[in-house]
Specification:
The protein is of the alpha/beta class and 268 residues long. The protein is built from twelve helices and twelve strands. The strands form three sheets. It has a five-stranded parallel β-sheet with strand order 2-1-10-11-12, sandwiched between helices. Strands 6-5-4-7-8 form a five-stranded parallel β-sheet, sandwiched between helices. A two-stranded antiparallel ribbon has the order 3-9.
């Protein structure tokens, strides 16, 4: 079935774009790749310094958001000669985790998980934490690429003492490339935009906010263009930016995302 016949789709990913375009073309769509992924680089020196400082203090809670983050922090601790202190501190504190990969990485190092997100999203984790009092508690939050205002604001509102560990830093794509894409969106060149990571969402909407096109773009996504997400975490990033309508598959795969977009268009 060619449910996307005559539709023009933008892909904001940087990998597996050829496969996704092939699937789109089989459904009758045309497509452009407009990568908003940017680059993610390790920031070992900064986070190792933070770890050494925080491991010398009393920590009540560790909040881990990615399995890769847990693994990377352990590697940094090993290189710095503080692995035993790192593991001891985690095991003597309470731990919250977002997503099954995060939980698996923590179990691998022998850490118990006290609180976990029911659906693998930041919002789901926050909901689980709402019943706990954090006033005056020292909380270390591991993030990936960029800080999460949702989590950080939650703990600030709880009057907690928070520290953020970012083992990886996200660098947005070149402004010129993002501006070209924003202009294409404003000119209504696309019928849908496919996002495969939260970083792509942050790159686009971070720049949209700077140039003053946020409300206009939100209106276009609400009334004309279809925002499509590969899974729950990416959909959550879109919702956090203010999008109400987000199409996302139950099975979190790129192929399933395109099938779901075709199904949505056919039904509407």
């Amino acid at each position: 079935m060619r449910h996307l016949e005559g539709k023009h789709i933008a892909l904001t990913a940087s990998r597996k774009t050829e496969e996704m375009q092939t699937l789109l073309h089989k459904q009758g769509a045309t497509s452009d790749v407009r990568s908003m992924q940017g680059t993610v680089r390790q920031d070992k020196e900064t986070v190792t310094h933070q770890m050494k400082e925080d491991l010398d203090c009393e920590v009540s809670w560790f909040i881990f958001t990615t399995g890769m983050g847990v693994t990377t922090l352990l590697a940094y601790a090993n290189e710095a000669g503080i692995e035993d202190d790192f593991l001891r501190k985690i095991k003597s504190s309470r731990v919250a985790a977002r997503g099954y990969k995060t939980v698996a990485a923590l179990k691998k190092i022998g850490a118990d998980v006290d609180v976990r997100s029911g659906d693998g999203t930041t919002a789901g984790l926050k909901k689980q934490l709402e019943a706990i009092r954090f006033s005056g508690e020292r909380v270390v939050i591991q993030q990936y690429g960029t800080s999460s205002p949702v989590l950080e604001n939650f703990f600030v509102d709880q009057d907690a003492d928070i520290q953020t560990w970012l083992p990886y830093i996200h660098y947005a794509p070149e402004k010129e490339a993002v501006d070209v894409f924003i202009q294409e969106l404003v000119d209504e060149k696309y019928d849908a935009v496919c996002f495969t990571s939260g970083l792509q969402v942050k790159s686009l909407f971070g720049r949209v906010g700077v140039i003053g096109e946020r409300e206009r773009l939100l209106a276009l996504f609400e009334n004309r263009m279809i925002a499509t997400a590969v899974g729950k975490v990416t959909a959550e990033a879109l919702h956090e930016e203010g999008l109400q309508r987000v199409v996302s598959p139950t099975t979190e795969r790129m192929g399933a995302m395109i099938v779901e977009l075709g199904r949505y268009v056919a039904e509407k």
